[in-house]
Amino acid sequence: MASEDFIIRPARPGDCKEIARIIKELAEHQGLGDRETVTEEALREDAFRDKPYFRALVAELPGTAADGEVSLAGYAMYYFCYSPFVRRVMYLEDFYVQPSHRGRGIGTSLMKGVAKIGVENNCNKMQWVCLNWNDIAVKFYKKHGGKDVTVDENWHLFRMDRDQLTAFAGM
């Protein structure tokens, strides 16, 4: 997907430095700047291996990098998983457009790009989470047909971080 202002395309290994920078910006935006964030090397290792842990689309800003490096306005990170109820599922793990580039259709184009990949891979559902205080994102997702299953279907999201996972596994 492309417009005169940006190009939506699959991430490449050379994008990892810019994606890591944007992830750090997102962590600051969410008040999580003090937490460890991913590195360029880790992104490259996890996304561009034989069996990648995730895939990503990026929003490239053509002609903005004087030194030849690509400048990105945002990204959408996703992976495939499985549900015994609906079978193939796409999980939108992370989705962010820098505030200075919002309102130009980049977010909608990224999300449509991920949705298209889901349809092409015969996914029956796309899921994601959103911080409860992020009213702008909630409005954006609802505008594009997203359902808040926390309210509508009474689901709770649980997790174990590394320490809890290790303790539970008995390791």
UniProtKB/TrEMBL annotation:
Belongs to the acetyltransferase family. The keyword rRNA-binding does not apply. InterPro entries: Acyl_CoA_acyltransferase, Diverse_Substrate_AcTransf, GNAT_dom. Pfam families: Acetyltransf_1. Keywords: Acyltransferase, Transferase. Signal peptide: none annotated. This is Diamine acetyltransferase 1-like. The gene is LOC109461689. CDD domains: NAT_SF. Residues 6-165 form the N-acetyltransferase domain. It comes from the Eukaryota. GO terms for molecular function: N-acetyltransferase activity.
